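Please decode residue identities from the backbone states below.
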């Protein structure tokens, strides 16, 4: 139990944990599906809704505005994405940016391609955007870009100003609007290739963190990254954020990279499924003799698309139907 909550007032605690946001959404969901939920009771409905919020399953198949509305929602969505498609990384498959976008839209139908492009640009360092990426590389870059979107937008502004010789305005109003892509830098521009002075960049980022109202990485993590080199580029800095295990632990969505593809419980479920399939009788492959008719083959019933998706996607912790709060 977190003892820090006792230092907050009631209003501060409600605001920090976004309790009123979830309560309002729960009421809206109840009113939109009143006939369905009233049948098994209001108390049970709210218990299941907030149980789903606590477990992190509440973001599954919800609209993007809801998915990105709170830090907990963003962290939960990253975890659901990892759990659902972990097998891609385990198989060693490399996917292009648009393929990752399609996977994300299976979980959130209106998930914007622009967000996926920003994550891919971190991995590819602004190279050709159609290059395939490993699941692990994309996942950690996506986590940082999605969770710290507003902060990285402000960092991009500071970096641009330093690169052009301006004095950045550290009192940047946090915004959730998309930040334009950094201007393309000529290959013969030595200053652009080397980036900006790390110590100066660090001082501006520390000042930004003091004034920032949105999520931002820990100042200790930022300082550790920027003290490792004299100069740094924007994408080099963001990639270092994505690889920093301490920052990833602070978000709390993903395990360390060494354990990213390890999930004994899910592996056991998959082994059971494979064992069941292997026990199915194989079709008779021998040829029929002269004058003998081959016995008719019995068509196996096709499983529904919904059922096949549930087998192919690794959901977080169970194979139960999506609960009522996720509709």
């Amino acid at each position: 139990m977190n003892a820090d909550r006792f230092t907050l007032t009631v209003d501060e605690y409600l605001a920090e944990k976004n309790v009123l946001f979830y309560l309002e959404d729960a009421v809206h969901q109840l009113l939109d599906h009143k006939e369905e939920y009233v049948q098994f009771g209001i108390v049970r409905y709210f218990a299941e809704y907030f149980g789903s919020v606590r477990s992190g399953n509440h973001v599954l198949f919800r609209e993007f505005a809801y998915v990105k509305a709170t830090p907990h929602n963003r962290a939960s969505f990253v975890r659901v994405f990892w759990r659902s498609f972990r097998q891609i990384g385990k198989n060693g498959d490399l996917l292009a940016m648009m393929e990752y976008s399609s996977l994300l839209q299976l979980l959130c139908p209106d998930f914007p391609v622009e967000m996926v492009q920003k994550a891919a640009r971190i991995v590819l360092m602004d190279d050709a955007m159609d290059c395939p990426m490993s699941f692990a590389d994309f996942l950690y870059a996506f986590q940082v870009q999605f969770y710290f979107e507003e902060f990285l937008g402000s960092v991009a502004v500071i970096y641009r100003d330093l690169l052009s010789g301006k004095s950045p305005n550290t009192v940047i109003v946090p915004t959730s609007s998309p930040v334009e892509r950094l201007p393309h830098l000529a290959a013969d521009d030595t200053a652009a290739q080397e980036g900006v002075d790390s110590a100066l960049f660090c001082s501006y980022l520390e000042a930004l963190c003091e004034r920032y109202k949105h999520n931002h990485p820990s100042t200790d993590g930022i300082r550790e990254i920027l003290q490792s080199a004299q100069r740094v580029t924007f994408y080099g800095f963001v990639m270092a954020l994505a690889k920093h295990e301490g920052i990833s632990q602070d978000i709390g969505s993903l395990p360390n990279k060494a354990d990213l593809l390890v999930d004994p419980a899910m592996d056991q479920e998959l082994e059971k499924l494979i064992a069941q399939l292997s026990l199915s009788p194989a079709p008779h492959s021998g040829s029929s003799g002269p004058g003998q008719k081959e016995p008719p083959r019995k068509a196996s019933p096709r499983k529904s698309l919904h059922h096949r998706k549930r087998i192919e996607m690794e959901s977080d912790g169970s194979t139960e139907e999506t609960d009522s709060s996720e509709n």
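Observation: Confidence is low (pLDDT under 50) at residues 173-181, 183-188, 283-327.
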